[in-house]
Write a structure and sequence with these properties.
Helices cover 68% and strands 0% of the residues. The protein is mostly helical and 275 residues long.
Length: 275
């Protein structure tokens, strides 16, 4: 069966259920960089990757089901700990969801659990042929893609600040981490140059912001405001991280508009789903 025939019934069965489950994990946790909407975006990126790999690589209904489950649970462990080892917590949360709700798991469910537990292992393997790409790889790459663009600027800022990395140190750490993510993506999807170019442009937005961070007063103020809001207002969405910036400042207004524009593209997809 073709991918375009497999996806709709699987999404209809699982997407809202999994989004709700992920949302419950973050109900009393203020972590917009990794909340249920991050999981939703990662699934959209995963679906984009699936479509590029198909039909050269065939996917079974169980593989797609395990991938959507992994996408919506991979960072739920961040509701417990923001440590880099959160994948183990995420795996347990996923198992508990299926056990507590007596939901039958798909075939090869362990592949979903493995992908969840190891999605943030950044010792990236190289030169894996397209036909050998597992759901673990697809999840890892999709997760990486959500770290780019204007959304990525805020996601990195929040989690690195929560990990007590100083503002002066953030720049180099973000650039190093993000460039490894792009390399990982390109190693697996270089057969699709238009896709690589699209996401390379999104990486450039992120890189340019952080390259200028320590020498640009407005960029510093923006990250300082994120740090202040984390401590004082506990934002529950990404734009809440930059509340309090001067609305009359054109740079800040443009940044906010760009974040909202990126978020809106995913919100439109969700609205289409529930209509």
């Amino acid at each position: 069966m073709k991918l375009e025939e497999l996806l709709p019934p699987i999404e209809k069965k699982w997407e809202n259920k999994l989004l709700e489950a992920s949302g419950k994990c973050f109900k009393n946790v203020h972590l917009p960089s990794h909340d249920h909407w991050h999981h939703y975006r990662v699934w959209k990126y995963a679906k984009e990757l699936l479509k590029r790999l198909s039909p050269a690589k065939e996917f079974t209904p169980d593989e797609i089901t395990n991938l959507i489950i992994a996408a919506f649970f991979h960072d739920t462990g961040m509701s417990v700990t923001n440590d880099e080892s959160h994948g183990k917590e995420s795996k347990q949360i996923c198992q508990q969801f299926f056990n507590n709700n007596q939901i039958q798991v798909p075939e090869n469910f362990n592949s979903a659990l493995e992908a969840i537990e190891h999605h943030d292992d950044k010792a990236y393997p190289e030169n894996i042929p397209d036909r050998d790409i597992s759901i673990n790889t697809i999840l890892s790459v999709a997760d990486d893609l959500d770290a780019f663009g204007y959304i990525g600027i805020l996601r990195y800022a929040e989690i690195y600040l929560l990990r007590k990395i100083s503002i002066s140190e953030i720049s180099n750490k973000v650039i190093s981490n993000a460039e490894r993510r792009l390399k990982h993506f390109k190693n697996h999807f270089n057969a699709f140059p238009d896709l690589v170019e699209k996401h390379h442009e999104r990486l450039d937005i992120l890189i340019q912001f952080y390259k200028n961070l320590n020498n640009n007063e407005e960029n510093q103020k923006l990250i300082e405001q994120v740090n202040k809001n984390i401590a004082e207002t506990c934002p529950d969405n990404l734009t809440g991280l930059i509340n309090g910036l001067d609305k009359n400042n054109s740079t800040f207004s443009k940044f906010r508009n760009n974040v909202n524009k990126e978020l809106a593209s995913f919100e439109n997809n969700f609205n289409e789903l529930i209509e």
